């Protein structure tokens, strides 16, 4: 196994580093462009594992996707998705897997949606049940991928669905995007009014509108999607706000000045809200509600280890069903750095701040569970503490393939070595 060990820079990190394009917006735009008839040019796009799996799946369904440069996709759809010859393999890309599960209902014939061993543990039954209640034949025998969806080449047969989005807002986004491709309006009704990361639904509806769809907000918990289909368009994608959190963290922890090219209040993605909280470092609030900025929680939790006072993270239960159980992974990683640095209480995470950690050297090998956000967050701890090794650093390729290069461009030195230690998980 490869481990990456960072040498704490001992100086403030300053310079210009732009995060790559937003994963969430790129995968929405790819799908919507693929459902449209005609050519769309997507600029500022992310090219990483998650978006390349989405692009490849669209190609397998007859959409022409070309990549004229490092940040552009040109997508040419025919207005229909064809039945792929093989199962669609989507790695551990939650967005691609969930969005394509609903879009597969538009195909004439069976489509199998599958992913890697991590994705095969991530729940998808609420979405499968929602498709069934819309009159679509769908099955996922384990409750997780692989999923088989048998569409008839039309839109959803029924016009209304109630969806439980407690485990993932992506189920709602997936239904919303596919719903515009039928012959009648579809009401998508949230079971209970609560939904983590509501901001991702807003990202979905605004991307849909950019591609010509009409989504009516009937009430707080009901969206009515009109049968407009999608119109090919040129679309620019903003930088990734979750990726930005690592750069904000590096700046705050080292007292530097990193110009990421986009002010925090200009992002439309939910994770940009993390900036306001992070900017209070080293006086972070005693309680942080992560429900509307979930992917930023590992970043803030690592920052909290250096805070003046302890921090309790609440509203983060669904971090347990992300790329790994992130509550457990962050707690284990912090305890690896210093015994007792964090603990779990139900689904809350408590980080016992210890500003004296900065400047120390420890012997800590961080199990990233192959989760990009665990790797990127713990790299921040390694900016202040010597002796931290990040296991499987290549996992950042899921959303930020140039992450290690970005840190190097700010003057961070690291070494990679083959280690005898195997991850325990
Ligand atoms: O819709 C999206 O683009 C996303 C929604 C969130 O997931 P859940 O809805 O599963 O919480 C987030 O964690 C994920 O990285 C991206
Ligand atoms: C949860 C994440 O990804 P996804 O659900 O899209 O796999 C993430 O990027 O943090």
In short:
This protein has helices spanning 23-35, 49-60, 94-103, 125-133, 170-179, 198-210, 241-254, 274-278, 297-304, 326-337, 372-381, 403-409, and strands spanning 2-7, 14-16, 37-43, 64-69, 72-78, 88-89, 108-114, 137-139, 147-152, 160-163, 186-190, 215-219, 222-225, 235-236, 257-259, 287-289, 311-314, 342-345, 348-351, 361-366, 386-391, 413-418. With 425 residues, the protein is of the alpha/beta class.
Kindly list the characteristics that best describe this protein.
EPSP_synthase_CS; binds phosphoenolpyruvate; transferase; 425 residues; binds shikimate-3-phosphate; four-stranded mixed β-sheet; amino-acid biosynthesis; 12 helices; 22 strands
Commentary on this structure:
With 425 residues, the chain is an alpha/beta fold. The protein has a four-stranded mixed β-sheet. Helix 1 runs parallel beside helix 2 and helix 5 runs parallel beside helix 6. The longest helix is centred in the middle third of the chain and has 14 residues. It is globular, with a radius of gyration of 21 Å. It starts with a strand and ends in a 7-residue tail after the last strand. The mean pLDDT is 96. It binds shikimate-3-phosphate (S3P) and phosphoenolpyruvate. This is 3-phosphoshikimate 1-carboxyvinyltransferase. It catalyses: 3-phosphoshikimate + phosphoenolpyruvate = 5-O-(1-carboxyvinyl)-3-phosphoshikimate + phosphate. It is found in: Cytoplasm.
